[in-house]
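Quarterly update from the structural biology core.
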Amino acid sequence: MMAVSTALLLLAAIPGSSAYPWLAQRRSAAPVPAESLPLPIPTLLPVATPPDPNDPRFTQFKPPGPGDVRSPCPGLNACANHGFIPHSGRGNTYENLIPGLSQCFNMGEDFTLAIGGAGFLASPDPLLGSFDLDQLDQHNFPIEHDASVSRDDAFFGDDHSFNAGIFNESLSYYDGMEYTSIEQAAKLRHGRFTTQKARNPTFTFGLREFLFAYGETAIYLQAMSDPFSGKAKVDYIKEWFAQEKLPYDIGWRPSAQPITLETLGQMVLELFANNPEEIPEGITITVDTVKDVFSGIDPLTGLIANATSNL
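Predicted structure, tokenized:
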């Protein structure tokens, strides 16, 4: 197996934290500047290869069994259920995430590096360079948040399992439509915000959650169609979310063009333009802001979000 990264191996080989101020900061619960955190950035890893529409894994759906773990993210769960990443949900590394997400959804390396880095921060030992899918189930970090399209809020207990009632509310915004649209997707996103804000006495939806929620909307629109149109078949989205299954059997095929942080950021701007929500004064939403959020960086402070919670 190829090394996760030269930097990671060097860090693992040298004990102690005195040479690594970021580690001491984590242990003392002080904020950690993003540029000081030595995430396991790969140097010897597989390149992202485009998906093969005839890959047999697209038809090899296998739900999780005893001992398997899953995340609050239906996309990662579907990848595991089809064997593009470990079916157990355990031991996710850049070595399996980069080819797996690319061959499944045509996700670009930049996206996988960002979301993988956020996943490592969720691990009890980030320096190992791997994480299990269930470790992503931490409230407001790294990917879970209130007002999900298909999950309930943490306040009500189960924030990681598919919730049919909430998903049906989301689908109601596409009633009578064969295809999604940017306009309706933005209304859906704002509608879920409004519903949960009224329902949840501990509702949390700051700038990070706002950007991540809109980023997730861009992900499902692009993964089920292409990086630009915002027009995905509603039936594809239903099967993907409800069963955590790739809707290959009803006609879906992975995007022919890569889905990157750039394409996701551009679509977030489109969604925001169609139904803006309140954000703090003086904050400008840009593609780079969206990229930071997917990398686990707080858009207001520039610090690694929740970086002190794992060590």
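The first strand starts at residue 137 and ends at 138.
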